[in-house]
Every structure is written in structure tokens, then in C-alpha cells.
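=== RUN LOG ===
request id: a7f3
mode: sequence -> structure
chains: 1
length: 143
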Amino acid sequence: MDEFQKLNQLFNFNQLPVQSAEKKQNETVEDDLTDEEKKQSDFGLARQTIINMIDKNSDAIDDILRIAKNAESSRAFEVVGQLVKTQTELARELMNTHKQKKDIDGQSANNIKQQNNIVFAGSTSELMKMISAEKAKLIEPEN
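=== RESULT ===
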């Protein structure tokens, strides 16, 4: 009998079953997810992390700005400026996350579904010849 079993008997304690590390690893929720669900989960985690950092950075800016105004220290204002720069970078990163998700999903913003503005690169006489030829095709009756 080992020492733990002796202590359990002494204190009348029933030992709880212990799961092995292998069993716990196999039971993770992550393994049950499909690739699409993993992408959505990762995107959600990345987005939430960036949003949390933006919120914390915003609070830090408010606090340090108050300190800078009270201390009238140029170094404190320099720190505020750096935090504001970081805040804009975080906002840009949040937008880039959305763009990367669209690229991964294959829904690139550059896909053109309908193009209304078509440009002709040529002379006016060439354009008139093309229009005349198209009109002639449309006017000819079919017998």
C-alpha cells in the first residue's frame, strides 16, 4: 500500500477516478470540429482577441492621457502618441482579418459579377464600323 492509499483509509476518503492524459486529449472538442467549423472558430478567436486588445488599449490611452495632462510631461504625451498609433494598427489588423477570411473562403472582393462600365480602346471610326456591323447583323431578316 502506498502512502496515499494509507491516508485515504485514515481519513475515510474515497479516491476519485483519474483520467489519463491520453483519454483527456482524445476527448477535446477541437477534434470533433470540421475544417469549416475550425476556420470559423479560429476567425472568431482572432477577432475577439483583437477587439479585447483594442478595448484594453483604449482604456490605457485614457489613463495615460490623464496622467500626461496632470504631469505635463513630454514623455507621457509621447507614450500616448505611441498608444494611439498602436490603436490604429489594431483597427487595421481587425479589418485585415476580415479580408483574409474572405480570401480563405474564396469570396474575394475583386470578383466582378456584373460590369457596366466597359471601355473601348480604339478610334471613333473603328467604333463606328463595329457598331454598323452589329446593326447590320440585327437588321438582316432570316428567310
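=== NOTES ===
Residues 21 and 76 are 49 Å apart (CA to CA).
The chain has a mean pLDDT of 78.
=== END ===
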